[in-house]
């Protein structure tokens, strides 16, 4: 029996990944560093997004 995939909420659209880097990077500044680095698993587009953040709190 084939598994049925659940429908993506909101039509499966990823609107955040469509944002330009000039908007995405300031947003990443406002979340904790660990969460910022963990965004790299979201997609290829996000793989190195955290590297462009000028200030990482490593405490």
TrEMBL record:
InterPro entries registered for this protein in UniProt: F-box-like_dom_sf, F-box_AtFBL13-like, F-box_dom
Q: Which residues form a coiled coil?
A: none
Source taxon at top rank: Eukaryota
* Alphabetized Pfam families for the sequence: F-box (PF00646)
UniProt domain F-box: residue ranges: 16-51
Q: Which PANTHER family match?
A: CYCLIN-LIKE F-BOX, F-BOX_LRR-REPEAT PROTEIN 13-LIKE
Q: What is this protein called?
A: F-box domain-containing protein
Organism (species): Kingdonia uniflora
């Amino acid at each position: 029996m084939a598994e049925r995939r659940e429908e993506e909420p909101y039509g499966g659209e990823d609107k955040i990944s469509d944002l330009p880097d000039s908007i995405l990077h300031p947003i990443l500044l406002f979340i904790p560093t660990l969460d910022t680095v963990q965004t790299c698993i979201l997609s290829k587009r996000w793989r190195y997004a955290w590297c462009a953040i000028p200030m990482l709190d490593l405490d």
